[in-house]
From TrEMBL:
GO biological process: Mo-molybdopterin cofactor biosynthetic process
Reaction equations catalysed: adenylyl-molybdopterin + molybdate = Mo-molybdopterin + AMP + H(+)
Job description of the protein: Catalyzes the insertion of molybdate into adenylated molybdopterin with the concomitant release of AMP.
Organism from which the protein derives: Enteractinococcus helveticum
UniProt GO MF annotations: metal ion binding; molybdopterin molybdotransferase activity
Cofactor dependence: Mg(2+)
The enzyme's E.C. designation: 2.10.1.1
Identification of the protein by name: Molybdopterin molybdenumtransferase
Length: 598
């Protein structure tokens, strides 16, 4: 199960058990970081009245042509002009210029504002003195009622994240509380006999890091963690603790950290195995593969692995997406595309989530790896602001784009190394085949016994001798244990594909025993398969033994390299050489783009 599929599974579990959450009302300041439960409409027009956009002089319609005017009493912001001009400005005198301040309500009969700096003199004078004003158009520097928003205007849509601007806009409408989406109430449990909190650990014990980790993560990612608990390695203690949390705090969800793997004292796993609705297993991610869930007394449990980085990765990649999909409250998971500044290679069969630092280099978002991949390396996670997604057997070089899953408190003002200056790669001429020039090959023997020295490899020397006789520059065969073949191929594929050989032949690991992995490993990296090549080798082998039918060999192309997997027996190797001897040069020429001779 992929990480995304598992998050979807948890979201459905939460909807089935917790259900829709009610809306709640919060004071404006407390609502920051929450999401609106409904559309927010304006109660009043904005502005609520015609007001002055400038500090200046207000004049009536008869005076827009400009001239010499007598200055009337001031109209400061917040003062009702009818208290000063009882019968309007014209009632005070038709040649009146009204000193009015920014934001002040426009007096009756005023149709335009002239900024004070355009007057002569260019400053406010005392009441009764005279001032010269230029001509002006009607409506100049007057903000009309409702010009920003009429009453009943949509201020913010449902699900909008409440921020400072929204709080200010709501406050300007006289709104003191906002109706927001409730967050699920979460209780977290961590522990084990080796974990202590609030006291000095004894020998073989450690401080509790996971409880503070989950609390801090919840704070930054919009999770409402209402209670914490701890447990020993005894099932009855764990069950008693979650009974207490449910009784005293009534959480919507329980999240545990640890006790879910394959060990003898995995109390979370023991409890989940006893529940009617539960699942325990592994998902295709590293770190944080072991996962589980269950329903205990109508309360869903999300069980996370206990290594701190595994807990962190699971919170960001599993829990946060599940909460968002189920409730649309809290923080919405955010991922960006960014250029990596180093080389990184994925592992076989799992998506890796590596700690990373994303920062700005000019106009580019650049990311770099933060520490090694180990799930216990908590200190190396300090300063990371994202998890970098490295798909299985993927190969990223500096300058290529990777997906960075951001943490909620991520900022891009962090120092990252710039992208290396990439020199143009020389064009490799693969067209020359005279006397074997430019033709290269590699032989890999997959045999645990041969790698351990308990069995002498005879197939490798024969394959190398045959390839050299055909003009291929070929080093001695590389002998690896069956279980090391995947890592060997990962290392080879991490190199520039232009540096790979034209021809890669493996021997061994093509059967049906549990240790035979060659076909699976090679099958995952091939760009193109050539099934008929192996059919021809099978037919050649059947001429000598019916056991040839048991081989699962595979052949194809990866990049510019032809790959064929031969059996481990000498007879199977000879059958392969017999067939390939007539076609391998032609295959290499076709991969190089050369036409074949007619």
């Amino acid at each position: 199960m992929s990480t995304e599929t598992y998050a979807d599974t948890l979201a459905r579990l939460l909807l089935d058990t917790v259900g829709e959450l009610p809306a709640i009302s919060l004071p404006l300041r407390e609502a920051i970081g929450w999401r609106l439960a409904a559309d927010l409409l304006t109660k009043h027009p904005s502005p609520r009245f015609d007001n002055s956009q400038m500090d200046g002089y207000g004049i009536g319609y008869a005076n827009v042509a400009g001239g010499r005017f007598r200055v009337g009493p001031d109209v400061p912001a917040g003062t009702d002009p009818t208290d000063i001009y009882h019968y309007g400005v014209n009632g005070y005198g038709h040649d009146t210029a009204v000193p009015i301040m920014t934001g002040a309500k426009i007096p009756e009969d005023v149709v335009a504002i002239i900024p004070v700096e355009q007057a002569d003199p260019p400053h406010f004078v005392d009441t009764g003195e005279y001032v010269y004003l230029p001509s002006v158009e009607v409506g100049t520097f007057i903000r009309k009622t409702g010009s920003d928003m009429p009453a009943g205007t949509l201020l913010a849509r449902q699900n909008t994240l409440v921020d400072a601007a929204l709080v200010a806009a709501a406050a300007s409408q006289g709104i003191a509380e906002l109706t927001v989406k409730a967050r699920p109430k979460i209780a977290v449990v961590a522990g084990g006999d080796e974990v202590v909190a609030g006291k000095t650990p004894r020998q073989a014990q450690i401080f509790d890091a996971n409880t503070p980790l989950m609390q801090a993560f919840g704070t930054t990612h919009g999770m409402e963690i209402i209670a914490t608990g701890s447990t020993t390695d005894e099932l009855r203690d764990f069950q008693s603790e979650i009974d207490r949390l449910i009784r005293d705090h009534a959480p919507d969800i329980l999240i545990t950290s640890g006790g879910i793997s394959e060990g003898k004292y995995e109390v979370v796993r023991q409890l989940l195995d006893r529940l009617e609705v539960s699942w325990v297993g592994k998902i295709q991610q590293q770190p944080g593969g072991p996962q589980g869930y269950g329903v205990y007394n109508r309360t869903p449990i999300i069980a996370l692995p206990g290594n701190p980085i595994s807990t962190l990765v699971s919170l960001r990649m599993v829990v946060v997406p599940a909460l968002w999909k189920a409730f649309r409250s809290g923080w919405s998971p955010l991922a960006v595309q960014t250029k990596i500044n180093s080389t990184v290679t994925g592992i076989r069969g799992k998506t890796q989530y590596r700690r990373g630092t994303v920062g700005l280099q000019g106009a580019d978002l650049v990311t770099q790896l933060q520490g090694e991949a180990g799930s216990h390396l908590l200190a190396q996670a300090v300063g990371s602001n994202a998890l970098l997604e490295i798909p299985p057997l993927s190969r990223f070089k500096p300058g290529q784009t990777v997906t960075a899953h951001l943490f909620a408190d991520a900022t891009f003002d962090v120092a990252v190394k710039p992208l290396p200056h990439l020199k143009p790669q020389p064009v490799v001429d693969r067209s020359s085949t005279a006397d074997g020039q430019g033709k290269t090959a590699q032989v890999i023997i997959a045999s645990t016994r041969a790698a351990a020295g308990t069995y002498e490899d005879e197939a490798g020397p024969q394959l190398v001798q045959w390839l050299r006789s055909k003009g291929y520059v070929t080093p001695n065969a590389l002998v690896v244990a069956d279980h090391d073949l995947a890592n060997t191929m990962t290392q080879l594929m991490a190199e520039d594909q232009e540096a790979l050989p034209d021809l890669l032949i493996t021997s061994g690991g093509t059967g049906i025993s549990p240790t035979d992995q060659t076909v699976d490993v090679i099958g995952e990296i091939l760009d193109v398969q050539l099934p008929h090549v192996m059919t021809a080798i099978l037919l050649e082998g059947l001429r000598h033994t019916p056991h040839a039918a048991l081989s699962r060999g595979i052949a194809g192309v990866v990049g510019h390299t032809f790959v064929a997997t031969l059996p481990g027996s000498l007879g199977g190797v000879r059958d392969g050489m017999t067939v390939l001897d007539d076609i391998v040069d032609h295959i290499v020429e076709q991969i190089r783009g050369q036409d074949h001779q007619r």
